[in-house]
């Protein structure tokens, strides 16, 4: 295979559109096994200070043009700040624009207007675990992005091991990819990003297709990455309310707009209140 033909993770993933069906009623709350709590909910800060932010969006708008020539707004004046070293979650009903916003932050889409700052290197991980991994073995997949960086094979191996260790997959180095569970594939994809010294992880509904044990494995892997390196920041799109327990901060979107951002428990209560008023309306 020539270099030109080499599949890049981004290109592979760009071809994919793995949207899930979700509405407000599908924002799920169940209980997960306990992990260490979020770094500290009291460490939540949204001070708008650009120096402390790893991710910043200011008044981002995004619209598409239909074949008939009409302009359809998808995102309207979206602003958010994610402080460096923290895990933030982005929630909202199906179709409210979460993936579009995440793709803009990843640089896969260009906003119609507004300002975006994301620390580099950054990496976007897609929802479907089968779309994450491109090589036959775990080691080859994690080493994939290091191919052209001029490292010796010893250096590559050491970076791969360190990254796999961060996601709890170092015992799987020689395993064929097709023998892994969905969550393990997601963790390998995250390790690939870490091996490339990624500073910002943009994670789009990674736990949608996973069972509970895989789900907890992926959250643990992300939290562990952040604990091992204060330089890594993550923005995690989810529809599972119980995952908010592990977040340092959260953002709630509706209809292309950021409605609320801040402390995860406040956001959880806000969504629960919306859900219960929605159920009351249906019942009455
Ligand atoms: N390329 C596109 N063409 C037409 N509509 C799109 C396109 N991308 C996204 N949309 C629409 O934009 C809205 C937001 O989509 P998306 O960002 O995927 O939402 P979410 O991730 O919150 O489910 C949806 O109504 C979706 O149908
Ligand atoms: Mg989406």
UniProtKB/TrEMBL annotation:
It comes from the Eukaryota. Pfam families: ABC_tran. This is ABC transporter I family member 10 isoform X1. SUPFAM superfamilies: P-loop containing nucleoside triphosphate hydrolases. The keyword Nucleotide-binding applies. Residues 55-280 form the ABC transporter domain. PROSITE patterns: ABC_TRANSPORTER_1 (PS00211), ABC_TRANSPORTER_2 (PS50893). One of its GO terms (biological process) is transmembrane transport. One of its GO terms (molecular function) is ATP hydrolysis activity. GO terms for cellular component: chloroplast envelope; membrane. Keywords: ATP-binding, Nucleotide-binding, Transport.
């Amino acid at each position: 295979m020539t270099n030109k033909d080499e599949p890049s993770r981004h290109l592979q993933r760009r071809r994919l559109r793995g949207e899930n069906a979700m509405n407000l009623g599908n924002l799920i709350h169940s209980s997960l096994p306990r992990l260490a709590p979020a770094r500290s909910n009291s460490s939540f800060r949204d001070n708008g200070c650009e120096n402390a932010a790893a991710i910043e969006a200011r008044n981002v708008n995004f619209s598409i043009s239909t074949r008939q020539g009409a302009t359809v707004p998808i995102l309207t004046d979206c602003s958010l700040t994610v402080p460096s070293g923290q895990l933030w979650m982005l929630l909202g009903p199906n179709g409210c624009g979460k993936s579009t916003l995440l793709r803009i932050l990843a640089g896969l889409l260009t906003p119609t207007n507004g300002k975006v700052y994301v620390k580099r290197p950054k990496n976007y991980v897609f929802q479907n675990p089968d779309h994450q991994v491109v090589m036959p073995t775990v080691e080859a997949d994690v080493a994939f992005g290091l191919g052209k960086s001029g490292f010796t094979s010893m250096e590559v191996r050491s970076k791969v091991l360190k990254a796999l260790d961060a996601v709890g997959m170092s015992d799987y180095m020689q395993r064929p990819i097709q023998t892994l569970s969905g969550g393990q594939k997601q963790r390998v994809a995250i390790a690939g990003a870490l091996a490339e010294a990624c500073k910002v992880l943009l994670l789009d509904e990674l736990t949608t297709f996973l069972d509970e044990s895989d789900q907890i494995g992926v959250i643990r892997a992300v939290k562990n990455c952040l604990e091992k390196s204060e330089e890594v920041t993550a923005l995690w799109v989810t529809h599972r309310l119980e995952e908010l327990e592990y977040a340092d901060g959260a953002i709630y979107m509706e209809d292309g707009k950021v409605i609320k951002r801040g402390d995860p428990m406040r956001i959880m209560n806000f969504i629960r209140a919306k859900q219960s008023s929605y159920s009351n309306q249906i019942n009455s």
